[in-house]
Amino acid sequence: MTITVFGTPASPFTLILIYVLKELGLSFENVPTTHEDIKTPEYLATKHPFGISPVLTDDGFQVYESRAIARYLINKYQGTKSSTVLIPSDVHKAALVEQFISVETSYYTHPLIKMLSQLILAKNIYEKLLEGKDYLAGEFSLADLLHIPLTFYAIKAGEGDLWNKRPNVLRWWKNIGERECWKNIVTEYKLDDVV
C-alpha cells in the first residue's frame, strides 16, 4: 500500500487528509505543492483539472477533493489499522455524519474562508488604500457609509483587531464610525443590543 498526498501541509484541506490518515493509522507520503505547481499544464492534466490541491494516489488509484478523498480513505481503510470510526456503519448515524458534513461545507467553511482571507491574505489592502487620507475617496462619501453597518457588527462581535491593528484603518473607522448621524442610529435602533 502506497498512499501519497499531493498538497502543502499549510492548506487546511491537506491537513484534513493528514488528520484522517493519522486517525486511521495509515502511513503515507506527503508531496508538498506550491501555487505554481498546481497551475502547470502537467498538474492540470494529470492531477486536478481545476488546479487545486490536495490530490491523493493510492496504489495507482487517484482522487481529488478533500471530502471525497476522506470518504474514500474511510470506506477503504476504516477499522483496518485503528479503532477510530469516522463514518459509522449504522445508516442513521452515518446520515447524521453526512448531514453535518453538508452543514460544514455549506455554512461553516465558506464563510470562514472569506473571513480568514481578510485576516491573512488581504489584511493590508485597506491600510494601503487609506494611506495619507481620512476617507476612501478623500472626503466622507457613500463609499465610506456603505462600510459602516457590517464593520460595526464585526467589531461588536469581537473582530475589532482587523481594524485596531492597522493605524490608517483605525483612524478611518473612528472617522466614520463616530459620526453623529451613525451614533444616533445606533441609539435609536438599539444596535448595541443586537450583537
Characterise the protein shown here.
It is an enzyme of class 2 (transferase). The protein is an alpha+beta fold and 195 residues long. Strand 3 (55-58) and strand 4 (61-64) form a beta hairpin. The chain has two domains: 3-87, 3-Layer(aba) Sandwich (Glutaredoxin); 130-193, Glutathione S-transferase Yfyf (Class Pi), Chain A, domain 2 (Up-down Bundle), CATH 1.20.1050.10. The protein is elongated, with a radius of gyration of 23 Å. Helices cover 53% and strands 8% of the residues.
Question: Nutshell version of this structure?
Answer:
InterPro entries: Glutathione-S-Trfase_C-like, Glutathione-S-Trfase_C_sf, Glutathione_S-Trfase, Glutathione_S-Trfase_N, GST_C, Thioredoxin-like_sf. This protein has 195 residues and is α+β, with helices and mostly antiparallel strands.
